[in-house]
């Protein structure tokens, strides 16, 4: 079977179903790690990979790659996705007034937060997206995720897994050196990814088990101009045609600084919604990160002229969750 084209010009823009299906079939990893697998491409991270990644720490510098978790976030309520609501249940005022009921003058503060698990910097778990009613590894979606949560591939299975070599591909800076920002609707191609790697040099070579971070610059623009339609609107992102690259490089995971990882609007004239998600999550078993803050890291990497680092990005072990908020850190 001929592998689907990696050139966006070859896409049949009238046939999202066919284009998605061809890539799902060509790059499907079902059974690759056994019938009981719950990790997908995270299996590419092993102990030796982590040891090698740890050797990249030279300066001890740590960069957080997380956006804030607060009411000033980008969410607008789509499918009940709201910004976090942070509420104090005990405060310094209560302590001053002595109404907390504690002895010998001790007081304290406590708080609670309510938020969708994918309202800010986060991972999409393997139970997040289905393809024609099928979940990762060829399971029926209804057998995996029920009202009780993801009973099979819940995000808790990845809690001690996602530590590996991270690689930043600053595509925004490479393609738009004056602004460092790709325009909304720009579809990042395989050629763009490979050109960025070549321009950045050997430290950005992508290897098996890596976690690849793709910076588009959209978050920087949203911070400057206001959130606008950052959450769900037009955005630069990966083309559907990058599915082959995501498969053959054998990366463990990938994350971007955008809401949806892939280009929006999607690359079809017929109705389409997140076609690359439909290929890579349930078929490749690829873990996807969204809304990561890659701006400081990009500046640090450019200054050091190295684009590889130890990356720790553990999800919260929320039993049965199909995604998780995270505070990923790059250690250089």
From TrEMBL:
Pfam families: Cyclase (PF04199). It comes from the Bacteria. Gene3D superfamilies: Putative cyclase. Transmembrane segments: none annotated. InterPro entries: KFase/CYL, KFase_sf. This is Cyclase family protein.
